[in-house]
Amino acid sequence: MNLWFIFLLPLLCLPARVRSEDYSDVTVIVRGSETIASTSDEFICATIDWWPPEKCNYDQCPWGRASVLNLDLTNPLLGKAIQAFSPLRIRVGGSLQDQVLYGTPNLGSPCDPFTKVSGGLFGFSQGCITLERWDAINDLFLNTGAVVTFGLNALQGRRQISRSVWGGPWNSSNAREFMEYTVSMNYPIDSWEFGNELSGSGIGASVGAEQYGKDLVELQTIINELYGDSRKPLVVAPGGFYDQKWFAQLLEVSGPNVLNAMTHHIYNLGAGNDPQVPNRILNPQYLSRTSDTFRSLQLTIQRHGPWSAPWVGEAGGAYNSGSRLVSNTFLNSFWYLDQLGQSAKYDTKVYCRQTLIGGNYGLLDTDTFVPNPDYYSALLWHRLMGTGVLSTDISGSSYLRAYVHCGKQKGGVTLLLLNLHRSMGFMVSVRNDLNVNLAEGQGIRRDNVFVHGLKRTVSWVGSKASDGHSKREEYHLSAKDGNPFARTMLLNGVPLELTEDGDIPPLYPVEVSVNSPIYVAPLTIAFVVFPDFEAEACGP
């Protein structure tokens, strides 16, 4: 029995009166007077990892040639996929990052790739990137306009104290020489990230927060010396799982204006072979749990290091290379877009998806470089959702998720709607909070806090749509053949596929009268652009 049938079995067993043509009315009120948070222009980010082809999980080896060291950098589909974002932030890093050596003149040993070794961290030896390979990677980045975050080896020079605990100061000599070469070549690194998953108890290895903070001060000193009066890259760290006490101590030890962003990792769907991954994606209560992490990190930064900002440095949903049955399918976009929406509400500036290519969770297929459904979800977010995050009040089922940002280019606002329900559609009315009076009544959910009812609402834009001629733009995303595990996504019923020349297809909306309700079918997603929406926080 295939996974699709098992997944939809509860739907097939529903009584005849509950079918996809049934719907529930929902009201979304957009509060446009002020933003509650903001993202950066390069909020959407994707990673390129170090895993070699020998990286395997659950009797499968899904990485192929997708590593920093062996990725085909000349594949035209890769360049076009990056270029379409104009720009895409790319984070270079991952589990093997803290075993990477840099092939500089004073390395003092052969510059060899990773090999499998028993007893090695994550089962691999140290590996080395040559300066020639670094040149080729930067050619790709320069030609595609990528914004680059590069993760440095933060274990170099330390000694292993116990099974997973490492101590002693960081030996920065190899990294410094690599950075010096990078500066000499005018490669525009936006940010240097220090270490990968060494925070708290660590994954494979850990370093104490006090020593880590001292090492960050050294890194900042190196950057100041190498870049001089030029624009200096950001320092970001620790690139690990959130541990409140460890993160707070890191900010306090490193001190003001050293750590520009705190990167943390999220894999909240469980292991890649867990059969419950699909059900977790469509469980609104389960998805909302991650907000606790976003909220706590935001507060930690406010209290201990307000000069810093939260970033998601790596998030792949399911860990250990992702789920081969879910991570590259339409269904995964519900998790992905919901994560983007949740994180943005807590002032997350950057969200790096694991991966751009590689494993089961790549935005691009590892073998063919053809975009998976989440690629188009990311591209639509990047093109439509602006940096200003707005608050919403919503009535109705928790299975309809709603996120609102200022518009990206046309002003107004953009609304993202995710229907997690397997059988119920939603008829959504959008209202502006201008002149809205709250009174006891229907039950309106205000960003997860319940307030009471609506006494009176006004036109969705206030005054601009009074003549009834204004239009909105709708981008409805659905799965091919209605199969949530499909590898092909439909935009307004049209398959999203590369053109004959390998170009990313145009993403056309449909225009709809602004005063009509929005229908969001079961297990579908909609971006809705309101170009004339009166939102004071979003400008004219």
UniProtKB/TrEMBL annotation:
Query: Where is it located?
Result: Lysosome membrane; Secreted
According to the record, the signal peptide region is 1-20
Membrane topology per record: Peripheral membrane protein
* MF terms (GO), sorted A to Z: beta-glucuronidase activity
Query: Which Pfam family is an annotated match for this chain, by its short name?
Result: Glyco_hydro_79n
What InterPro entries does the record tag this protein with?
A: GH, Glyco_hydro_79
One CC-aspect GO term: plant-type cell wall
Q: Which UniProt keywords apply?
A: Glycoprotein, Hydrolase, Lysosome, Membrane, Secreted, Signal
The entry assigns this protein to a family as follows: Belongs to the glycosyl hydrolase 79 family.
Q: Describe the task this protein carries out.
A: Endoglycosidase which is a cell surface and extracellular matrix-degrading enzyme. Cleaves heparan sulfate proteoglycans (HSPGs) into heparan sulfate side chains and core proteoglycans.
Q: What name appears for this protein in its UniProt entry?
A: Heparanase-like protein 1
